[in-house]
Amino acid sequence: MSKQYIIPPTLEQRTHLRKALKAFVQTQHLCPPVSLKQLEQLADAFCSGHEECVDMRPWLMVEIHNQIWLPIVAGVPHERRLLMLPQCLSRYGQCQAEYDEYGLLCHRCGRCHIPNLQDKAEQLGGLSIVAEGFTQVIELIENRVVDAVIGVSCLDSLEKAFPLLVRHAVPGLAIALNDSGCRDTHVDTDYVEEMLSLLSDEVTPTFLDHDAIHQQVSRWFTRPELEQLMQPASDPTQQICLDWMSGEGKRWRPFLLSAVWQALTGKTTMPNDVHRAAVAVECFHKASLIHDDVEDSDRTRYGQPTINALYGDAFAINVGDALLGQGYRILAQSNNAELQRLIADAHVKLCRGQGEELMWNNTPVTMDYVMDIFRHKTVPAFEVSLMLGLSCTGNFIHLRPILQTYSDALGIAYQLKDDLEDFVQDKRQPSTLNSQPSTLNCQLSTVTSQRPTAVLALQTEHPTWSDEDVLAELQRLTDLHHQQALDALNGLDQLELKRLLYQVTEKIMQN
């Protein structure tokens, strides 16, 4: 956002522009969330017909964001909303309020508008706090304490907080103060009260309960549940398969598959096909880890000895093959043959990427080659869970190209980010070409240099570049593919699927 915080100077002008922005947004037919880049583009498009506000882009972006989210927030019950007010609305030198760890405790002395706005929110059944910063708001949303936020802040603070709201796809409205500074600020109180009072029964959003999905997925990987699908341990290979599957893990792929299904169907009770596909995709993931450890001669993973370190390469390969067989056997029990095809395609693609990695020393080091490995080894890890969740719905096949484009861009962005971090931190332990997003330090033993592979390719193609040049190009490429992933989601009109993938992107690119 621009450093020039120009706000329409009069209430009349602000009201006029808000009405014009509402009409403009209605012509765009947008489904939230939208990215900061898209908000900038929308603000610029609006300014092309309103030259008087070309210097007001930050304010316009906030108001456009509000108009896009307004129908969703209006459908959230008042008791599931939070009003967040800034401390600077109080009267400096006259305020008698005290402060605790959550913010200002208003004494309702009547010297400012804070008590009136809090009373309005609470009369409607909502929550209200007076505090600075939106980090705690994101926690409240993620923990399902509230489902939407109406936040008041100056544009100076919104420059820092607004991107967080956008990237985390927080359902909410952000209302800018009419002046900057930290003392005796003002806001259009009638407008805030109007936003607080909004209520619509036309749109009743159903938000995903991520904790509930995680809990369900965790139950699927308890020993008794796994033995029902994978058979009890009757031999050493099966025993280790069950130990490996029921051990510690984030279950990232089963969660994503299940969340995609729930986001598209709006249902919370997941059918057998979702259960089977979720366990099967984890079988393939765990098998790929075992085979990677053998091929890279790794002796530890997650701080524990690898299976090949404990039992030897031959037995480890056998366990990995057994998990692949279990995955296909579990999928064969479903009524959806498409699930097997999707897994098989991802399996072959992953092996192609692994082969390209193993042949690294015999191939010219170019960015094109590196990108091909990323597409074959990393992208399937994102793509297959999305596609399996999509297929389990029995519908929404038209979304497949969107999710493929998204997965491609996100997988490449993740690996470029990983290389960038290795380069900056000078870990001397290349982690690129790792097919598991949750594993950040997989080592490629065949690389002859200690620099990350994308760095090697850039240095080979541009031998005169300094480290700063390479760093800048890596950052540019990372940002480019990150944005391409978000741009791919513009074609979605499913609110919760879009929110889910925005949140997934944020977690992957910020971790």
Protein architecture, described:
- By secondary structure, the chain is mostly helical.
- The protein is built from 20 helices and eight strands.
- A four-stranded parallel β-sheet has the order 4-1-5-6, sandwiched between helices.
- Helix 12 runs antiparallel to helix 14.
- It is globular.
- The protein starts with 10 loop residues before the first helix and ends with a helix.
- 43% of the residues are buried.
Count of discrete alpha- or pi-helical segments spanning 4 or more residues:
20
Per DSSP E runs of 2 or more residues, the count of β-strands stands at 8
CA distance, first residue to last residue? 23 Å
What is the global morphology? globular
The ordered H/E elements are HHHEEEHEHEHEHHHHHHEEHHHHHHHH
Approximately how much helix is present in the residues? 55-70%
Estimated structural class? mainly alpha
Mean pLDDT: 86
